[in-house]
Amino acid sequence: MTEPTEAKDEEDLMVCSLGKVFLKDASLEAPNSPEAFLGIQDIDPKVTLQFKIDEREVSEDTYSVVLTLTITAADEPKTLFLIEVQQGGVFLIRGYDSPERLERILKVRCPKMLFPYARETVDNLIVKAGFPPLMLAPVDFTSAYTRKTAAAAGA
Predict the structure, then answer these.
(1) 88 DSSP β-pair partners
(2) Residue 81 CB: number of other CB atoms within 10 A?
(3) What is the pLDDT of residues 15-68, one digit of tens each?
(4) Does a structural domain hold residue 150?
(5) Residue 118 CB partners (closer than 8 Å, separation 6+)
(6) Mind listing the pLDDT tens digit for each residue in 95-131?
(7) CATH of the domain at 75
(8) Contact (CB, 8 A) for 68 and 86
(9) Nearest partner of 80 among 31, 135, 44, 27, judged by Cα
(10) What is the pLDDT of residue 9?
(11) In a domain, 146, yes or no
């Protein structure tokens, strides 16, 4: 029979958990309403999505991460709508041994957890503005982070 050991695996010591989800800010502009609704079924608007991630340490091992989504739909030259949502979360994060690993958690894993909440808020705003729902495709935060760090390393 083997005796239990006090040493734990490194994986057992690493924690990243979402403690609280909050909506920090949301705005919707539909500058061409109600005219934008006339013939809406006949248009194919160009939809663009931009995102930004802000994080800060709130207290020891506790971080606030805010995912900002900016969505614009346009049928040139008219803008149908512009939405900005700042979806936030409070995360308990500990056990990551390097600043690089912590940054990756804050810039990849945390936004992945927040994205479904932000997408739901975007859809609710769009529908309430009178437009058809817009189910945003998932964002590949891993690739975006890899591109950003590679660009910074090459600069």
Answers:
(1) 22, 66
(2) 23
(3) 999 999 999 999 999 998 888 777 766 778 899 999 999 999 999 999 999 999
(4) no
(5) 67, 69, 85, 87
(6) 888 899 999 999 999 999 999 999 999 999 999 999 8
(7) 3.10.420.10
(8) yes
(9) 31
(10) 52
(11) no
Residues 6+ apart with CB under 8 A from 111: 51, 53, 65, 67, 139, 141
Q: Is residue 7 part of a domain?
A: no
List the structure tokens of 84: 């900005």
End-to-end CA distance of the chain: 56
pLDDT at 118: 97
Integer angstrom CA distances of residue 72 from 23, 27, 32, 38, 67: 19, 12, 13, 19, 16
- Tokens found for residue 53: 């991630």
State the alpha helices, DSSP H only, in the chain: 10-13, 99-104, 110-128, 141-154
- Nearest in space to 124 (alpha carbons), one of 77, 94, 87, 74: 87
d(CA 49, CA 119): 11
Amino acid at 16: C
